[in-house]
């Protein structure tokens, strides 16, 4: 394996926290490349995230995501992960080895404001379709905190303001 440099920035957080949209703006601010892990998964599997989750179930999807995330090799890139990436310890260990992990933290209230339809977004509900947004938030929050090198609260911020706040936090 080539010499590993930790010059990537990995974004983690709840669905709706802004990982993909903020990631693009952050890449422009820092002059980095941008990789949307969800799109990498969709391209490699030739299915939308929701179709993959429907076909494989939540656990099967997490296995696919884990494998694809472990294979990501990048330099000077912002990598926006799916909200469920933190379920895969191997994937998170790999991502941590190639960059700094930034948790885009939002409050539960902000999450409710931002997310309208979990089913359309391809959100992994480990507890099944009956899992509430509150359950999902409570389950994932400690995982985001566990893997984060840097935590940035992005409540009530525009995408640009949030991206600048992340850039400042990384200095």
TrEMBL record:
It is found in: Cytoplasm. InterPro entries: P-loop_NTPase (IPR027417), Shikimate/glucono_kinase (IPR031322), Shikimate_kinase/TSH1 (IPR000623). It catalyses: shikimate + ATP = 3-phosphoshikimate + ADP + H(+). Binds 1 Mg(2+) ion per subunit. GO terms for molecular function: kinase activity. Its cofactor is Mg(2+). Mg(2+) binds at residue 20. ATP binds at residues 16-21, 121. Keywords: Amino-acid biosynthesis, Aromatic amino acid biosynthesis, ATP-binding, Cytoplasm, Kinase, Magnesium, Metal-binding, Nucleotide-binding, Transferase. It holds the Pfam family SKI. Its EC number is 2.7.1.71. Substrate binds at residues 38, 83, 140. Coiled coil: none annotated. Pathway: Metabolic intermediate biosynthesis; chorismate biosynthesis; chorismate from D-erythrose 4-phosphate and phosphoenolpyruvate: step 5/7. Its main location: cytoplasm. It comes from the Bacteria. Catalyzes the specific phosphorylation of the 3-hydroxyl group of shikimic acid using ATP as a cosubstrate. Monomer. Belongs to the shikimate kinase family. This is Shikimate kinase. It comes from Raoultibacter timonensis. The lineage of its organism: Bacteria, Bacillati, Actinomycetota, Coriobacteriia, Eggerthellales.
């Amino acid at each position: 394996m080539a010499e590993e440099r930790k010059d990537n920035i990995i974004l983690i957080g709840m669905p709706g926290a802004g990982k993909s949209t903020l990631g693009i703006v952050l890449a422009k601010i820092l002059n980095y490349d941008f990789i949307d892990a969800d799109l990498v998964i969709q391209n490699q599997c030739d299915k939308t995230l929701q179709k993959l989750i429907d076909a494989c179930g939540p656990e099967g999807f997490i296995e696919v995501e884990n494998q694809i995330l472990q294979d990501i090799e990048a330099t000077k890139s912002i990598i926006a992960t799916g909200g469920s990436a933190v379920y895969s310890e191997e994937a998170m260990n790999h991502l941590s080895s190639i960059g700094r992990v930034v948790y885009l933290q939002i409050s539960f209230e902000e999450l409710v404001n931002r997310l309208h339809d979990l089913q359309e977004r391809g959100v992994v509900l480990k507890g099944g379709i009956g899992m509430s947004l509150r359950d999902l938030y409570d389950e994932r929050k400690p995982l985001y905190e566990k893997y984060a090198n840097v935590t940035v609260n992005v409540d009530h911020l525009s995408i640009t303001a949030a991206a600048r706040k992340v850039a400042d936090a990384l200095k």
